[in-house]
């Protein structure tokens, strides 16, 4: 039987996930949805044959809904995740799990109190072919012990109302999660450097920012966050080991030799750049949910990412090197 999914938030990625669950992933069906933008949500409900509900709470309570996808704005996530846990339903929550470590802690505690893991966080880079190749290379020992990572996370333009704080809590949170997953260890310290700001960064936004992380074993990481780079969506990651390096491949695109130049297209945003990763993420989520388990990034991973992002925020505000205190992982969450 198909997994019957209810979606909260039908903006850019919400609609894309509805399309993906309807046309790309087998074994699932979007039966209910809600968004405060009622007109757009009703249009999407009609298009995909789902029932429109006036509130997210009604989607969660709907008897025909087995599992919830949350793709509304970041500050709304914690409330809906807690409601999903209370209803005993599986929840896929787009990143970040919440906008503060404290809200994530409440989610972790509620999930443990309920006695069953239900929550997966939308850290889709763990499902990307390139990052998976890098993980396999590191785990095989092919480049020796990892010493350093150089990363770049550039967006062509920021989304509406993007703030200096969001560059880390909404954007670099992807690196925070995927690098921790690649290395299999937590972070120890954070520092944030603020270079000269782009004149194209509006409303006092500090952009770019450089995030420096140190892991517990001493691996050093630099992440350039540039949300206003203008030319395209560009994510890079180079891992430097004792005996070699590995680098994230760009997505396969047609190569053009023309007019005395060699080029290939850089995608404008995340939706095409990581399309295969989102598809794999949802295939694996539907499969695991139907088996009654959470197999992807957990509420604990969402919590650790927010603890780290909060430390980065403090580091940016104070200019200090901030220690990152990751709580001990409860046995409830397997490694
Ligand atoms: P968006 O603004 O296009 O869509 C968000 C939608 O949420 C809007 O339609 C808005 O009306 C709705 N909404 C806001 N408050 C709501 C509420 N209380 N109840 C129901 N709906 C509500 O934004 P987006 O780009 O689609 O991002 C949505 C979420 O997905 C964000 O949390 C973002 O961080 C995440 N995201 C993840 C990725 C990724 O790569 N994994 C990419 C983009 C966005
Ligand atoms: C967006 O919400 C995403 O998650 C994208 O993957 C990221 O690149 C972008 O910076 C975020 O705003």
UniProtKB/TrEMBL annotation:
Homotetramer. It catalyses: myo-inositol + NAD(+) = scyllo-inosose + NADH + H(+); 1D-chiro-inositol + NAD(+) = scyllo-inosine + NADH + H(+). Belongs to the Gfo/Idh/MocA family. The gene is iolG. Involved in the oxidation of myo-inositol (MI) and D-chiro-inositol (DCI) to 2-keto-myo-inositol (2KMI or 2-inosose) and 1-keto-D-chiro-inositol (1KDCI), respectively. One of its GO terms (molecular function) is inositol 2-dehydrogenase (NAD+) activity. It holds the Pfam family GFO_IDH_MocA. GO terms for biological process: inositol catabolic process. Pathway: Polyol metabolism; myo-inositol degradation into acetyl-CoA; acetyl-CoA from myo-inositol: step 1/7. Keywords: NAD, Oxidoreductase. The keyword Oxidoreductase applies. Residues 3-123 form the Gfo/Idh/MocA-like oxidoreductase N-terminal domain. This is Inositol 2-dehydrogenase/D-chiro-inositol 3-dehydrogenase. InterPro entries: Gfo-Idh-MocA_inositol_DH, Gfo/Idh/MocA-like_OxRdtase_C, Gfo/Idh/MocA-like_OxRdtase_N, MI/DCI_dehydrogenase, NAD(P)-bd_dom_sf. It comes from the Bacteria. Residues 135-323 form the Gfo/Idh/MocA-like oxidoreductase C-terminal domain. It is an enzyme of class 1 (oxidoreductase). Its EC number is 1.1.1.18, 1.1.1.369. The keyword rRNA-binding does not apply.
């Amino acid at each position: 039987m198909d997994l019957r999914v209810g979606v909260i938030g039908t903006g850019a990625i919400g609609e894309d996930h509805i399309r993906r669950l309807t046309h790309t992933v087998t074994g699932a069906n979007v039966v209910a949805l809600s968004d405060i933008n009622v007109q757009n949500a009703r249009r999407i409900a009609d298009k995909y044959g789902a029932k429109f509900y006036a509130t997210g709470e009604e989607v969660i309570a709907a008897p025909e809904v087995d599992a919830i996808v949350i793709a509304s704005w970041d500050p709304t996530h914690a409330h809906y995740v807690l409601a999903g846990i209370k209803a005993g339903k599986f929840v896929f929550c787009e990143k970040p799990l919440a906008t503060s470590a404290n809200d994530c802690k409440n989610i972790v505690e509620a999930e443990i109190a309920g006695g069953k893991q239900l929550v997966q966080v939308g850290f889709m880079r763990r499902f990307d072919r390139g990052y998976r190749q890098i993980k396999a290379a590191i785990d095989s020992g092919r480049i020796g012990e990892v010493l350093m990572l150089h990363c770049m996370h550039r967006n062509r333009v920021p989304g509406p109302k993007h703030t200096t704080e969001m560059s880390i809590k909404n954007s670099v949170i992807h690196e925070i999660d995927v690098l921790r997953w690649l290395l299999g260890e937590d972070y120890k310290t954070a520092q944030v450097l603020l270079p000269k700001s782009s004149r194209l960064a509006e409303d006092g936004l500090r952009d770019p920012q450089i995030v420096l992380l140190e892991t517990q074993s001493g691996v050093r990481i630099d992440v350039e966050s540039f949300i206003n780079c203008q030319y395209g969506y560009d994510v890079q990651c180079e891992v430097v080991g004792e005996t070699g390096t590995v680098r994230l491949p760009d997505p396969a695109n047609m190569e053009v030799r023309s007019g005395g130049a060699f080029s290939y297209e850089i995608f404008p945003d995340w939706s095409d750049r990581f399309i295969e990763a989102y598809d794999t993420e949802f295939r694996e989520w539907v499969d695991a949910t139907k088996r009654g388990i959470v197999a992807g990034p957990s509420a604990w991973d969402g919590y650790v990412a927010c603890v780290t992002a909060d430390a980065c925020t403090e580091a940016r505000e104070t200019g200090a090197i901030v220690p990152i205190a990751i709580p001990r992982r409860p046995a409830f969450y397997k490694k």
